[in-house]
Write a structure and sequence with these properties.
Layout: E1 10-11, E2 15-19, H1 25-31, H2 38-41, H3 48-60, E3 68-76, E4 81-91, E5 96-103, H4 112-126, E6 131-136, H5 141-149, E7 153-159, E8 162-168
């Protein structure tokens, strides 16, 4: 059985944050197509076909019913173009989320990642998620700034060489 809790759309000042659809693969292959983008996140650019297969798996949801995979694309409202993604893996009965963000190279330096990550953290907190975690490569200062602006704090913990950032809401 797959998790049946779907990602809901939300908005920020400049973004429509839309649930991921398989149909987004072709446009997102262009957004994520710069090899330099993968310096800190790993991997390499995917073809539209590979991305489509990945999105099919993500949209189907986690095979574990206690885990919700929420994935969104970032649509820049004034251009109507996709610029990146945010995601949350929600566990612990909805108490814990691991989050991530990526904004295509052409869209970087405009504060879109910070805006999207802050919007995501706000949405998760509204839904009762108490602990929000992100993993950031120690050399990726821009992503560390995004985590900080979303209210997360660096911890001394490392996972797979990345710094664990955390926000824990008080009860």
């Amino acid at each position: 059985m797959r998790s049946s809790v779907p990602a809901e759309p939300f908005v920020t000042a400049r973004l429509d944050v839309l649930p991921l659809r398989v149909a987004h693969a072709a446009e997102m292959a262009v957004v994520l197509g710069d090899p330099a983008l993968h310096t800190f996140i790993g991997g390499a650019p995917s073809t539209p076909e590979v991305l489509r297969a990945r999105y099919e798996r993500l949209v189907a949801g986690s095979p574990d019913p206690s885990v919700a995979w929420w994935n969104w694309v970032l649509r820049v409202r004034d251009t109507g173009r996709l610029a990146g993604t945010v995601q949350a893996t929600v566990t612990g009965g909805g108490d814990h989320a691991e989050v991530a963000w990526v904004v295509g190279t052409a869209w970087q330096g405009r504060g879109l990642a910070s805006e999207a990550a802050a919007g995501l953290v706000g949405l998760l907190r509204e839904q009762g998620v108490r602990t929000i975690v992100a993993h950031v490569h120690p050399g990726h200062q821009a992503s560390a700034a995004v985590a900080r602006s979303a209210g997360l704090s660096a911890t001394p913990e490392r996972q797979d060489g990345e710094v664990r950032w955390r926000l824990t809401a008080t009860p």
